[in-house]
Design a protein that fits this description.
Layout: H1 2-18, H2 24-28, H3 33-56, H4 62-83, H5 91-116, H6 127-136, H7 142-155, H8 161-170, H9 176-195, H10 199-223, E1 243-245, E2 251-253, H11 254-262, E3 281-282, H12 284-297, H13 304-309, H14 348-356, H15 410-425, H16 430-445, H17 448-456, H18 459-465, H19 472-486, H20 489-496, H21 501-510, H22 513-526, H23 530-538, H24 542-551, H25 554-567, H26 571-579, H27 582-588, H28 597-607, H29 611-619, H30 622-632, H31 635-649, H32 653-661, H33 665-674, H34 677-700
Antiparallel strand pairs: 1-2, 1-3
Helix pairs in contact: 1-3, 1-4, 3-5, 3-6, 4-5, 5-6, 7-8, 8-10, 9-10, 15-16, 16-17, 16-19, 19-22, 21-22, 22-25, 24-25, 24-27, 25-28, 28-31, 30-31, 31-34, 32-34, 33-34
Domain U-box: 226-300
Catalytic activity: S-ubiquitinyl-[E2 ubiquitin-conjugating enzyme]-L-cysteine + [acceptor protein]-L-lysine = [E2 ubiquitin-conjugating enzyme]-L-cysteine + N(6)-ubiquitinyl-[acceptor protein]-L-lysine
Keywords: Repeat, Transferase, Ubl conjugation pathway
């Protein structure tokens, strides 16, 4: 049943999410780790209820189906966000995005448990208790604290150290270095917003920049209260022992500025000026002054290498290390916000949406310096944050706390530019069309608000038309634009109703490899709505997706498999996948070196209830590979491999004997002890099948 397939997808997504905790070191350093724990609590409450529903094959209401689909989407997005965190991305943006998704997931789960109360008690007996337990899951929101702080800034209200520390702790800014990196990231994001005349976002980011400046000033005031400020490294906030000067003229402790550069941060931490080279010039004058001062005051400067090697070299939060007893200083007038264009209360919700609307946490993104230097053949846009590099072209930004007023009329200027590009799309000149699609691709790549403006100007219909272009470059750029636009939920409906599905399938059949893969990703993005999936099937999407699963790149194969998982929910579609050679391609994808094993096993588990698939898996050599995943795979892989083997062995002594001969019993026994809840259940079911077969054979003999 389609309901069961959806529930299995949700269970798979939950299992994948829970498996993140196995990388505890990576998770503990994630600034949003507390939200992971909150979602984990709810996910663990959901799993037994979902398992009961799958086992019962019960018919579910449309509201429940929609609720489960929504939960699946939120959990999958949260998994992607946690797996793709990059240390040089904006921590504030990232945490607010995670918080927004976690809040939506919590509200959605409350609605689902409320609806489950109306099902028979034997199916969902724990639902009443679960409803109350979900209500107890923490929901403190830093977004509210930040909104209030920005409002207070506008009013000239002095922010207390407690507020600054609360925000810093909530977004993972636990050191002076973290604060300085966040300031650099926000500076670059502000410049990007100004580049496209997005004044609302630029103004909001300025407010956040001022918050980070106050955090830095507060920490510096603690550290430097009794010592000459010129003797301190702006990065470590400790007395320098080997001061060196960088190209911006600022002086730092050598070990700390070298570490800063090693992280790829080609910008002065204090002035945020872009640096074209990393030459370090010893500052012997400052070094001599520090040595004389230390001798006169009987002070031993700290060892910078020891500070760097310690776990938390520059703790911000009061209560950490030796600074736990330091008093909270009262900020003087120099720390007050005196800019005039910050946020007011009526804008808080709008500005909060600016932060949480994007599909990924913003990182330090490259800028378009000029059209002449723009590379048209870019890599496809990613839905997760990419490795962040400070561009050498970043403009110098002073450290003044005053915020200059933004220009007005940016949105209208953007619309004029976009409408001109849309006219160029309709030009008879191929060069004009190439330039227009390339520019639209750039504009839709990184900044979510651009996507809204471009869709509002009517670009979607013109881009859909270009999917039939004979020029492969135009076709590839057009499909990538549509993929980027589909990342904004508000654009999905417009794209779906533009007649996009047949053109996307046309690209799947005729485009170059980049175009085919981005077309697939667009289908994945749009396939969350059931009516869209129906249109994709009517457009003939399954056959070319199966082919891409056979001859695409590893990423293309994984995306094709994801699309087929979403589309092949009924036996009719599953049989189309099987007839097209899908099982053969999935078995080929189970090569660990290709990095596609997990996705292949998910699809095999989805197909394995169809008789033709069972035969194809057996004849294609899939059973030993599934057993290998049960033994050596990731938690998610083990779950799905065990689920696939369960379906193969159900009511079939022949398949049971084949699986036993492949040595499945020892890893299955191990899985009953150490696997996830769902993996344990599947392993126990398989072992019961084997035991029943053994008893039957004994009776016959």
């Amino acid at each position: 049943m389609e309901e069961v397939s959806r529930l299995r997808v949700l269970l798979d997504n939950i299992s994948s999410y829970l498996s993140i905790s196995s990388s505890s070191d990576k998770l503990s350093s994630n600034p949003a780790h507390k939200y992971y724990s909150r979602v984990e609590e709810i996910a663990k409450l959901l799993m037994p209820v979902l398992d009961n529903l799958v086992a019962s094959d019960a018919s579910l209401t449309e509201l429940l189906n929609n609720g489960f689909e929504e939960l699946s989407q939120y959990i999958d997005e949260l998994r992607e966000q946690f797996e793709s965190w990059q240390p040089l991305s904006s921590r504030i943006f990232y945490v607010l995005r995670i918080e927004s998704l976690a809040s939506k997931m919590r509200e959605s789960s409350l609605e689902v448990f409320q609806l489950l109360k109306h099902l028979p008690a034997d199916l969902v007996s724990p639902s009443e208790d679960c409803l109350e337990l979900v209500k107890l899951v923490g929901r403190e929101e830093v977004s509210y604290t930040i909104d209030r702080a920005l409002i207070d800034q506008r009013k000239g209200v002095e922010l207390t150290p407690e507020v600054l520390l609360k925000i810093a702790e909530s977004v993972g800014l636990r050191s002076n270095q973290d604060i300085l990196i966040e300031g650099v990231v926000l500076t670059n994001l502000k410049e990007d917003a100004k580049l496209v005349k997005n004044n609302i976002k630029a103004g909001f980011i300025k407010g956040l920049m001022y918050l980070t400046k106050q955090m830095h000033d507060y920490l510096a005031k603690i550290e430097q209260s009794q010592l000459p400020s010129d003797f301190f490294c702006p990065l470590s906030l400790q007395l320098m022992t080997d001061p060196v000067t960088v190209a911006s003229g600022q002086t730092y402790e050598r070990a700390f500025i070298e570490k800063w550069f090693d992280m790829g941060l080609m910008v002065c931490p204090k002035t945020r000026q872009a640096l074209t080279q990393t030459t370090l010039t010893p500052n012997f004058t400052v070094k001599a002054f520090i040595a004389n001062w230390c001798e006169s005051n009987n002070v031993n400067p700290p060892d910078p290498l020891e500070l760097i090697q310690s776990n938390q070299p520059f703790p911000l939060l009061v209560g950490s290390g030796s600074r736990g007893s330091l008093p909270l200083p009262v900020m003087d007038d120099t720390l007050k916000c005196n800019h005039t264009e910050s946020v007011d209360a009526s804008k808080c919700e709008e500005l909060h949406q600016v932060l949480t609307r994007s599909a990924s946490a913003p990182g330090i993104v490259s800028k378009v310096v000029s059209k002449a230097n723009t590379s048209i053949s870019q890599a496809p846009v990613e839905t997760v944050p990419q490795p962040c590099i400070i561009p050498a072209t970043m403009k110098e930004t002073g450290s003044s706390s005053n915020m200059e007023a933004e220009e007005t009329g940016g949105s209208s200027n953007m619309e004029v530019e976009v409408k001109k590009l849309i006219q160029d799309l309709k030009s008879s000149s191929l060069d004009a069309q190439r330039e227009a699609t390339a520019q639209l691709r750039l504009l839709t790549k990184d900044i979510p608000d651009n996507r809204t403006v471009i869709a509002r100007c009517g670009a979607i219909a013109a881009l859909v038309n270009k999917l039939y272009s004979m020029d492969k470059m135009i076709q590839a750029d057009a499909v990538t634009c549509l993929l980027n636009l589909s990342l904004d939920d508000s654009n999905k409906t417009v794209i779906a109703y533009s007649g996009v599905f047949k053109p996307l399938v046309h690209v799947l059949k005729t485009g170059n490899m980049e175009a085919k893969e981005n077309s697939t990703r667009a289908l994945v993005s749009l396939s969350k709505a059931e009516e869209n999936r129906t249109k994709m099937l009517e457009a003939g999407a399954i056959e070319p997706l199966v082919r891409l699963m056979g001859n695409g790149s590893p990423r293309g194969k994984k995306d094709a498999a994801t699309a087929l998982t979403n589309l092949a929910t009924r036996n009719k579609e599953k049989e189309m996948v099987i007839r097209g050679g899908g099982v053969r391609y999935l078995i080929q994808m189970m090569n660990p070196a290709a990095g596609t094993v997990e996705r292949a096993v998910v699809v095999l588990a989805n197909l394995a209830n169809v008789p033709e698939a069972k035969i194809a898996i057996r004849d294609g050599g899939g059973i030993p590979l599934l057993v290998e995943v049960v033994e050596l795979g990731s938690p998610r892989g083990q779950e799905n491999a065990a689920a696939a083997l369960c379906l193969l062995c159900m009511d079939s002594s022949r398949f049971c004997n084949t699986v036993i001969r492949e040595g499945a019993i020892p890893p299955l026994v191990a899985l009953t002890r150490s696997g996830t809840a769902r993996a344990k259940e599947k392993a126990k079911s398989l072992l019961k099948y084997f035991e029943a077969l053994k008893q039957e054979n004994q009776r016959r003999s």
